[in-house]
Write a sequence for this structure.
């Protein structure tokens, strides 16, 4: 297992290099000039040339890329064009908020999907199953920005008492209650799409497992139905679900860009959205890289989790 993990980490190096190239090229070909944005009303050619030189934009693109990757290898993501703050520092300050939101959305999605998916599979074609199917279709159909606005209008303005604040962020260490109240709406908004997909996957995986012979054998031994489902059915049905959850980590990170903007959540997604209009290259590049690396590490963790869920899976032969 250790050899497999080390091998995967080594293979991530060329992938990471391709990611840096893609990020650099996409940011540079986007319309706009950060020097013009920074200069404002100033259009003097000499002043613009001085600003470009200060930003390092006066050099050829290959040279800019080499300089950036060299600093990146040393842990330096550069400085923001607008605030002059170190990008690594700006991202580090906002990662806790994004991690809290993403973890809350993932826990909400997985827990509800497991509970409702199990009930739907056990009570197939019942009212609960039909209602969960309807919720699934609605969750996939509603875009996150629309759902977020609807939730804000409903819980912050329509329902008396303003159950949940319409936005903002209070650190968990400062006020636990207020933090959780402000976390509910953005977490539900971010989790809805993945919840719908996870619920359908849990239901279909369990229905497939229910037809296997070892399930009939377990029931024939006189085991309680709860034991049959939790110890035999659920663990085997979770493998495709875990695969799906690993893929959805990237979707949650991507969805955080929109959700954090709607709810004024001070995470790295909102940081990137703020930096894009001002052509703040270092900030956008840094956020995209952190998101990409987080996704790659998550896929590695999912592969390792397979071996725990199914003892038949072994990575020792894969590394031979």
């Amino acid at each position: 297992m250790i050899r497999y993990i080390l091998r995967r980490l080594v293979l991530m190096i060329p992938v990471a290099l391709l990611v840096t190239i893609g990020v650099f090229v996409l940011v540079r070909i986007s319309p706009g000039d950060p020097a013009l944005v920074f200069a404002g009303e100033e259009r003097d050619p000499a002043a613009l040339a001085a600003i470009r030189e200060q930003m390092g934009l006066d050099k050829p693109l290959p040279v800019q890329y080499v300089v950036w990757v060299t600093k990146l290898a040393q842990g330096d993501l550069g400085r923001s064009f607008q605030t002059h703050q170190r990008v690594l520092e700006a991202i580090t300050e906002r990662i806790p908020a994004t991690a809290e939101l993403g973890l809350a959305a993932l826990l909400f999605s997985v827990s509800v999907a497991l509970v409702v998916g199990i009930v739907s599979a056990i009570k197939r074609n019942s009212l609960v199953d039909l209602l969960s199917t309807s919720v699934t279709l609605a969750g996939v159909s509603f875009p996150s920005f629309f759902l977020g606005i609807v939730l804000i209008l409903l819980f912050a303005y329509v329902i008396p008492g303003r159950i949940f604040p319409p936005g903002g962020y209070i650190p968990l260490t400062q006020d636990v209650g207020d933090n959780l109240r402000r976390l509910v709406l953005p977490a539900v908004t971010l989790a809805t799409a993945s919840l719908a997909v996870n619920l359908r996957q849990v239901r279909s995986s369990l229905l497939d497992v229910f037809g296997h012979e070892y399930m009939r054998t377990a029931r024939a031994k006189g085991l309680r139905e709860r034991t049959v489902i939790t110890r035999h059915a659920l663990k085997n049905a979770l493998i495709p679900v875990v695969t799906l959850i690993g893929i959805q980590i990237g979707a949650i990170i991507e969805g955080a860009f929109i959700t954090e903007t709607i709810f004024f959540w001070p995470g790295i997604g909102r940081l990137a959205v703020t930096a894009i209009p001002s052509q703040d290259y270092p900030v956008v590049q840094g956020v995209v890289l952190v998101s990409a690396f987080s996704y790659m590490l998550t896929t590695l963790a999912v592969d390792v989790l397979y071996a725990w869920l199914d003892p038949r899976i072994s990575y020792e032969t894969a590394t031979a």
